[in-house]
């Protein structure tokens, strides 16, 4: 067995579940300011809904092909392992959202709505795996900044006149629903680590178990899919254009070797040609 | 062969790690020390710190009830020892008992501790043989605490001031 196959197996069966389970563990961990006690917050219902939407988005964007991960062609052990990895991915997604959603009040409502709206909009957009990953990194990054930098500075008020002024102003705008539990700075570090790990896990996750991690879909497959989506008339035009202009030829030595077979036989009942007769 | 080994190791590892995550969320330990305590309870190796328990008993006999409870809290951080919980309930009873009226808040906490002690000895009724105590079973202590929380016409009996603390 080559080292490539060993590494691939280690990634699929050990590393990816470990990464996603670690995110699932750390996503709900908070550290209280008073006493430094640990708090474990299980995923709330809204984050489970967001995680489902995200998995659908993964499937639509081609980042995860569920048919390849769970297939009748796989061995039972492979299917069990892949199912565990996908379950870990689901809970990691839910806890990644949990990690960046404020705990209570208006900010939580606004940010949850922002996530729902963005994921719902994305369901109808054209994505490839790499663009989806970049979009998710930006989404989680924005939410992280809002929760752990902006809101955390407002929760931990009383340090400067500017922050006190902003807090007082926002308190009025948000009808007093800005207050939240006071968490220690280490909560932000844990959340940052969890999100970074989650994005790394997604980058390592191949669309199908045998595929290469993080590589975009091949141009030919994209072209074929785009062609299939065109209306029949448009498709005709594209094919006509290829016929009239001619498809660009591949350089010598490139391209797939096509198998050729020589068919030999004797046609019975036909008059023999001159050549055959001479032979 | 090697790939199959990695597969099975991966499956086993994933199950163990997932169980650990679920366990952490279910038990919600507040510190790393708590993690160790909960783990020893789960592994069945949990034991009460006998020295701290005795120190708590000494304080209890000197009527330093809050300090005694502090020692017992450290002796039995997981609250898994029926005998320690019995003493905790007893300390709440003695501290909350009053000749004219009882402290309901302390009695309520005592009742909770007595119920914990009862629940921790499901096979046989918990009996504590201590000559310094006047109540020796968890059921008796529980009844005493529950009775102290009830409002009855007997509460207005002036002769009540002559009753004795157990």
Indicate the overall shape of chain B: elongated
Using the alpha-carbon principal axes, give the shape of chain A.
globular
CATH topology of the largest domain in chain B: Serine Threonine Protein Phosphatase 5, Tetratricopeptide repeat
Termini separation of chain A comes to 54 Å
Judged by helices, strands and strand pairing, the structural class of chain A is mainly alpha
Mean pLDDT of chain A: 79
List keywords for this structure.
heterodimer, A: 279 residues, mainly alpha, two-stranded antiparallel sheet, 2 strands, disordered C terminus, B: 166 residues, Serine Threonine Protein Phosphatase 5, Tetratricopeptide repeat, 7 helices
General description of the model:
The complex is a heterodimer of chains A (279) and B (166). Chain A has 279 residues and is mainly α. Chain A is 64% helix and 2% strand. Chain A has helices at residues 3-26, 45-61, 66-69, 76-100, 105-122, 129-155, 161-173, 185-204, 219-229, 232-245, 274-278, and strands spanning 29-31, 38-40. Chain A starts with a helix and ends with a helix. Chain B has two domains: 2-43; 50-162, Tetratricopeptide repeat domain (Serine Threonine Protein Phosphatase 5, Tetratricopeptide repeat). Chain A binds chain B through residues 1, 5-6, 9-10, 12-14, 17-18, 21, 24-25, 28, 36-40, 42, 77-78, 80-81, 84-85, 88, and chain B through 2-4, 6-11, 13-15, 17-18, 20-21, 24-25, 28-31, 34.
């Amino acid at each position: 067995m080559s080292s490539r196959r060993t590494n691939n197996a280690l990634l699929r069966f050990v590393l990816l579940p470990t990464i996603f389970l670690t995110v699932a563990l750390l996503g709900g961990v908070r550290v209280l300011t008073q006493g430094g006690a640990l708090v474990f917050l299980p995923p709330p219902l809204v984050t489970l809904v967001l995680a489902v939407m995200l998995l659908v988005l993964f499937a639509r964007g081609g980042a995860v092909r569920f048919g390849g991960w769970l297939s009748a062609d796989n061995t039972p052990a492979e299917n069990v392992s892949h199912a565990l990895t996908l379950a870990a991915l689901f809970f990691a997604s839910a806890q990644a959202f949990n990690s960046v959603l404020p705990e209570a009040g208006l900010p939580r409502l606004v940010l949850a709505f922002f996530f729902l709206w963005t994921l719902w909009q994305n369901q109808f957009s054209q994505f490839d795996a790499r663009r989806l990953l970049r979009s998710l990194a930006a989404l989680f990054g924005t939410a992280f900044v809002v929760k752990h930098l902006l809101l955390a500075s407002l929760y931990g008020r009383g340090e400067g006149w500017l922050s006190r002024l902003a807090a007082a102003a926002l308190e009025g705008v948000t009808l007093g629903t800005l207050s939240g539990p006071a968490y220690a700075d280490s909560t932000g570090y844990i959340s940052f680590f969890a999100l970074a790990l989650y994005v790394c896990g997604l980058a390592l996750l191949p669309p199908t178990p045998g595929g290469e991690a993080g590589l975009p879909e091949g141009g030919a497959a994209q072209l074929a899919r785009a062609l299939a989506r065109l209306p029949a008339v448009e498709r005709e035009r594209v094919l006509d254009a290829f016929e009239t202009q001619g498809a660009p030829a591949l350089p010598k030595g490139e391209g797939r070797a096509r198998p050729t077979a020589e068919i030999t036989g004797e046609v019975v009942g036909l008059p023999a040609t001159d050549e055959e007769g001479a032979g | 062969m090697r790939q199959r080994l990695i597969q099975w190791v991966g499956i086993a590892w994933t199950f163990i790690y997932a169980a650990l995550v679920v366990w952490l969320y279910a038990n919600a330990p507040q510190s790393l020390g708590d993690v160790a305590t909960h783990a020893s309870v789960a592994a069945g190796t949990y034991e009460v710190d006998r020295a701290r328990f005795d120190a708590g008993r000494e304080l209890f006999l000197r009527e330093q009830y809050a300090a005694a409870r502090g020692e017992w809290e450290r002796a039995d951080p997981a609250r898994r020892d029926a005998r320690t919980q019995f003493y905790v309930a007893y300390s709440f009873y003695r501290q909350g008992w009053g000749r004219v009226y009882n402290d309901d808040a302390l009695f309520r906490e005592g009742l909770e501790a007595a119920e914990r002690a009862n629940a921790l000895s499901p096979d046989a009724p918990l009996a504590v043989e201590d000559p310094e105590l006047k109540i020796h079973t968890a059921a008796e202590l529980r009844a005493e605490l529950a009775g102290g929380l009830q409002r009855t016409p007997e509460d207005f009996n002036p002769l009540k001031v002559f009753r004795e603390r157990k």
